[in-house]
Design a protein that fits this description.
The structure is a single chain. This protein is mostly helical and about 180 residues long. The radius of gyration is 25 Å and the shape is elongated.
Length: about 180
């Protein structure tokens, strides 16, 4: 349920930011003298997509690290109820949990694995199943957005150089748009 809420929130924020970046909402009320639309940087929507998905991937990975860390702390907690480790008991049958001999932690992909005496292993339910696939989708999307933004800027600069017009770099130096 939390994953669905996070996904909807990211989708809504991305849609609002992309519409703003595309000029759908006025940035300020234009004066009668300045009726021409303000030029925007090439690849602005791609930059927004890269930033939003990059942050979402980072937050999701941190959430997974928190889950793995709490599971490891819970497994290291000694006492009368420490065998088998509590994270190895969630979501499995008591017979399988009774055969647990050790556990291992992985940070890429995020995983808390319980190892049985017969050499088999299974993943604990303490790390949500949406974390690794979510990071695997969001991180490459962020990289693709950044590459597309760079490509759009380079394409505009090459087109300006071909036509003999002012390049974006010279506009920044002179302060004109």
């Amino acid at each position: 349920m939390l994953a669905l809420l996070l996904l909807v929130l990211v989708a809504v924020v991305t849609a609002v930011v992309l519409r703003r970046g595309a000029g759908a909402y006025p940035r300020a009320r234009p004066s009668p003298a300045a009726l021409a639309p303000a030029p925007r940087k090439p690849g602005a929507p791609f930059r927004v997509v890269a930033a939003v998905t990059g942050w979402a991937a980072g937050l999701l990975y941190v959430w997974g690290l928190v889950c793995v860390g709490f599971a490891a702390m819970d497994a290291e907690d000694g006492g009368t109820d420490s065998l088998p480790p509590r994270p190895c008991r969630t979501g499995v049958s008591p017979e399988l949990a009774g055969r647990v001999a050790d556990y291992s932690v992985s940070y890429l992909p995020l995983r808390f694995s319980c190892e049985t005496v017969d050499g088999e292993a299974y993943d604990s339910a303490d790390v949500p199943g949406y974390v690794n696939p979510g990071v695997a989708v969001l991180a490459p999307t962020a990289v693709a957005g950044a590459v597309a933004a760079g490509y759009a800027g380079e394409r505009r600069a090459r087109a300006a150089a071909r036509t003999g017009g002012p390049s974006p770099a010279s506009n920044r130096r002179t302060g004109s748009l």
